[in-house]
Amino acid sequence: MLITAGNKRPNMATPVTVIRLPKGPDPNSRGFDPTSARFIALCRTSIPTSAACDADPELLPTEQHARSVLRESFLRCLLSMANKKIQFHMYERVKVEATFRASDIDVLNFQVSDLHTPIGVQKEALIRCQDVISFTFDA
User: Fold this and answer.
1) Which of 31, 38, 57, 129 suits 20 as a labelling partner, its CA being 20 to 30 A distant?
2) Where is the SUZ-C domain positioned along the sequence (predicted)?
3) What is the set of domains in the chain, with CATH numbers?
């Protein structure tokens, strides 16, 4: 605590929470073992192909093209959502509204501001994507 001259209030530093991530498997802590259950669950590199493509390999290029078009559309949608009011429709018929800020690289979480929920307003929040059924916004 810093005490200033006179009868002024002491100037205290604001505490900051530090999140410690677990160390990776290598000595330089550069990542997790790609064969670990956690890595496989959280960082899947791709979605398996459909059963039709397994049966007919000639359909694989068509499916890959369709996936790339859908991925590009989704990424463009995320870009157009930036700094806009978004209505999230979640499980149990819960609807919340927030200003969309960003998504993590794996699209597991949305970072939002001014989250309006049935029980109050949260200035900053993360919304888990698996909790969202759909979202809408005005373009």
Assistant:
1) 129
2) 1-36
3) 82-139 (2.30.30.100)
